[in-house]
Amino acid sequence: MRIARLALEEKRVDYVLREVDVFAKTGVPQEHLTRHPFGRVPALEHGDFRLYETGAIVRYIDEEFSGCKLQPTIPRARAKVNQIVGIMDAYAYRTLVWDLYVERVVSAREGRLPNEQKIGAALPRAAVCLSELARLSDDHGFLIGESVTLADLYAAPIFACFMQTPEAGPLMNGHEKLTFWWQRFSTRDNMSRTEP
């Protein structure tokens, strides 16, 4: 959900946030199931137009509303943005958030022991995710190019979780480009406005 909110913030679109606990013990509210039949988040309502799935939502926001462009027009840059988005979705989210952050940080907050086996198994994949993200990104201050793209918006919420883990320090060692990007991106106003 934070990715979609970041897109709205970057485009300076006014929006109303309706928070839904999709993990509630009573189940997903029926009202939300009319917006997202799979009971997940995010879902977007723009007038009488309804849309769910993060990728569809952020691309719609970028194309429907004026303001900065979140998708490069140069084909190779756009392809790299889409590749980073795919990596974040398919590999990094599960590994960096669920296997590391949830097991290490959320479990401590909830007073339970982390699953060290799951954490240990996640470390090699986390290293590959970070290595590829560093390899694909360029040296212009954002992941791809000189302005915010969908690549930044997908990576930032994942990094906001991952960087809270003790594993982040050793895994980020040698990835100065990513460290610089995160230090810069994490202090943006849009990150604080969308903090859960």
Can you tell me about this structure?
Helix content is 59%, strand content 4%. It is mainly alpha-helical. The chain folds into 2 domains: 2-64, 3-Layer(aba) Sandwich (Glutaredoxin); 75-193, Glutathione S-transferase Yfyf (Class Pi), Chain A, domain 2 (Up-down Bundle). A two-stranded antiparallel ribbon has the order 1-2. α1 runs parallel beside α3 (54-64). The mean pLDDT is 95.
List keywords for this structure.
mainly alpha; Glutathione S-transferase Yfyf (Class Pi), Chain A, domain 2; single chain; 59% helix; 196 residues; Glutaredoxin; globular; two-stranded antiparallel sheet
Count of DSSP helices?
Answer: 9
**N-to-C span:** 10 Å
In N-to-C order, the SSE pattern is HHEEHHHHHHH
Radius of gyration: 17 Å
Structural class: mainly alpha
Instruction: Count structural domains.
Output: 2
Helix content class: 55-70%
CATH architecture assignment name of the largest domain? Up-down Bundle
Assembly form of the protein: single chain
CATH class of the largest domain: Mainly Alpha
Kindly state the number of beta strands: 2
Largest sheet: number of strands, sense, barrel closure: 2 strands, antiparallel
Q: Which fold name is given in CATH as the topology of the largest domain?
A: Glutathione S-transferase Yfyf (Class Pi), Chain A, domain 2
Q: How much of the polypeptide forms β-strand, as a percent range? A: under 5%
Shape: globular
Q: pLDDT under 50 segments (min length 5)?
A: none
Order of strands in the sheet with most strands:
1-2
Give the integer mean of the pLDDT values: 95
